[in-house]
């Protein structure tokens, strides 16, 4: 799942939401007026996808703010959907959506050179064409995988009709279909050639294996020139995608635990270097996405006997407000100001003799 953004406005739309099913390779291209918020994205998925396909087990996306937000994470948790964000510094992990984005953008660019604001009418033919193309993985079209049959393609050699409006639509659609087919064939061959040139054969790791993590893309304190090239070792918890794994990192590492295999190196022990010799004082990377500061406390409650606060985060909208444990509100002035205005709300219990 990904977005094509910054498109010329066409019929009020400037963004395309690209959704690709990993099994069938069926795609949905949803035009949107702008980049949606997390709550708008959730509503779009319900209206444009879930009501046709059902609720998915897993969503793979990049680390954009819509997908990484607390609202979207909670939305997925409520529906029992696993949210798999792409590995750090390697968006190719979301390869299906990335590739579809390139194909759609290329095809539309070839079709609308004369008028870039006319891409909306061609979007349906781009989706229809992608879903009618035989996948080298399944040897079937996405339509055949999902519907168990291939819908008929339109009779582009139909004789001329007598209704000018229909004829104009027919000829325009015919040109769009042929142009998209030609663009997709060219791009598919070029993409395959480039991917084969850099792809490594096979999957080089197994779950539970100890690996070193490259510091190439990590923010390590101190002089970069003298920073260790690898840190760890860390065990592999699970394989997330074809070329990505999830590591078990220390709690103090406030970074994503999902990495592309190109950033990992297997740990090799010998008689001269045993597991006990592995370094234990590895540097702690700086957090990729430090948690925003709490702007204000809005409400309080108790859940299972524990005090929680509803907080408003600095620089984020009302949709991102969330309940957090009282211990996470580290600025005492925030809670003091709240309880001064709302003295009747649940508050920390005074210290003293425990309750019987």
UniProtKB/TrEMBL annotation:
It is found in: Nucleus. Residues 271-292, 321-356 are annotated as: Disordered. Residues 1-150 form the Integrase catalytic domain. SUPFAM superfamilies: Chromo domain-like, Ribonuclease H-like. Residues 275-287 have a biased composition (Low complexity). GO terms for biological process: DNA integration. One of its GO terms (cellular component) is nucleus. PROSITE patterns: CHROMO_2 (PS50013), INTEGRASE (PS50994). It holds the Pfam family SH3_Tf2-1. GO terms for molecular function: nucleic acid binding. Residues 331-340 have a biased composition (Basic and acidic residues). Residues 292-350 form the Chromo domain. It comes from the Eukaryota. This is Integrase catalytic domain-containing protein. It comes from Paramormyrops kingsleyae.
């Amino acid at each position: 799942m990904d977005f094509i953004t910054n498109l010329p406005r066409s019929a009020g739309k400037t963004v395309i939401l690209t959704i690709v099913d990993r099994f069938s390779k069926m795609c949905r291209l949803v035009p949107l007026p702008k980049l949606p918020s997390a709550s708008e994205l959730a509503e779009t998925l319900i209206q444009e996808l879930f009501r046709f396909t059902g609720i998915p087990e897993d969503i793979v996306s990049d680390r954009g703010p819509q997908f990484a937000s607390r609202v979207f994470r909670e939305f997925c948790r409520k529906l029992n959907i696993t949210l798999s964000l792409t590995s750090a510094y390697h968006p190719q992990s979301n390869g299906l959506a990335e590739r579809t984005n390139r194909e759609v953008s290329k095809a539309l660019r070839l079709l609308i050179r004369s008028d870039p604001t006319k891409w909306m009418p061609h979007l349906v033919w781009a989706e229809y064409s992608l879903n009618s193309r035989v996948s080298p993985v399944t040897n079937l079209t996405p339509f055949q995988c999902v519907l168990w049959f291939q819908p008929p393609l339109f009779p582009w050699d139909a004789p001329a009709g007598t209704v000018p409006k229909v004829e104009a639509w027919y000829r325009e659609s015919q040109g769009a279909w042929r142009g998209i087919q030609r663009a997709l064939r060219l791009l598919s061959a070029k993409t395959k050639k480039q991917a084969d040139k850099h792809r490594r054969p096979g999957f080089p790791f197994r779950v539970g294996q100890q690996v070193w993590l490259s510091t190439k893309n990590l923010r390590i304190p101190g002089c970069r020139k003298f920073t260790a090239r690898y840190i760890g070792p860390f065990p592999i918890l699970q394989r997330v995608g074809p070329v990505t794994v999830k590591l078990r990192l220390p709690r103090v590492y406030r970074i994503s635990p999902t990495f592309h295999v190109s950033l990992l190196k297997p740990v090799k022990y010998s008689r001269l270097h045993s597991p006990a010799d592995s370094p234990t004082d590895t540097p702690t990377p700086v957090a990729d996405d430090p948690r925003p500061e709490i702007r204000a406390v809005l409400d309080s409650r108790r859940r299972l006997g524990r005090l929680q606060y509803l907080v408003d985060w600095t620089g984020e909208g009302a949709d991102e407000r969330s309940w957090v444990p009282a211990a996470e509100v580290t600025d005492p002035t925030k809670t003091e100001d709240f309880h001064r205005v709302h003295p009747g709300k649940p508050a920390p219990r005074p210290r003293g003799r425990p309750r019987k």
